[in-house]
Amino acid sequence: MSKTFETGLAKNVANFETLISYVVGYGPAYNPSNAAIQLSSLQAKAETAKAAMATTNELLASYTTAVAARKVAFEPLSKLSTRIFNSLKATTATQANIDNAESNHRKLQGRRASAVLTEAEKESLTAEGKTANQISASQRSFDNQLETLDKQIKLLSTISAYNPNETELQLTSLRNLYNDLLQKNRQVINDEAALSSGRIARDKEIDGETSGMISLALTAKDYTKSLFGQSSQEFKQISGLSFSRPKI
Fold first, then answer.
1. Which terminus of the chain faces fewer neighbouring Cβ atoms within 10 Å, N or C?
2. pTM for the complete prediction?
């Protein structure tokens, strides 16, 4: 959702309140048969639209806070993974176990098992009838990091030689860390879903096809034009108020 879209909605709400102020000034003369654009209905719509905007802003604040908290929590994971792996290598663990742990460690570091092929190397492999495709190294999404960390912890729990004295490297600490990261990641997912639903509800209030604020504003302008005439001072008061449907 672009900032331009958000700004456009706020401008529409502000213009709608300005429209209502002029309608109030028209007094009893403003008396449409369409109940949806009567003064009381316009005022009620303004309140629900502002409430929907406020709710969305609150949800956005919660979401951005959760995103920031997740980012801070995950940032040390790469360096911690290096310490874990080096600690394991300093034990009597088998080479097979070390190799498996290294695979997990490499994913947490976002490194490839092999170097990226150059275009010339890819062409050479293709000419030999070999596959030149490589799996993307972008395995550092938060979900993937969590999955890899979980695999690493479970692997380490099977290696009796892995028994570090450093508290932060011990299995209990690693499990606690995993649970904390999992919760922070879930919080972002939940807040993102809530924000999306909030925006849908807000957009219906403001930009609904028939009962949305913008539709009512345009209808009220049409009624005012019919009531006072296109060249009237009353219509000129509101004719310049813009109610546009911003593109997402």
1. C
2. 0.77
Of 52, 29, 31, whose CA–CA distance to 41 is shortest? 31
Q: CA-CA distance, 248 to 3, in Å (whole number)?
A: 10
| 164 assigned to some structural domain | no
Domain assignment of residue 227, yes or no: yes
Domain count, the chain: 1
Q: Is residue 113 within 8 Å of 224, Cβ to Cβ?
A: no
Q: Is 212 exposed, middle or buried (0-12, 13-18, 19+ CB in 10 A)?
A: buried
The answer to whether position 50 is within a domain reads: yes
pLDDT in tens, 191-216: 999 999 999 999 999 988 888 999 99
Q: Which amino acid is at 164?
A: P
Q: Which contiguous run of DSSP H or E holds residue 197?
A: helix 171-207
DSSP string computed for 64-83: HHHHHHHHHHHTTHHHHHHH
Residues ≥6 apart with Cβ < 8 Å to 113: 103, 106
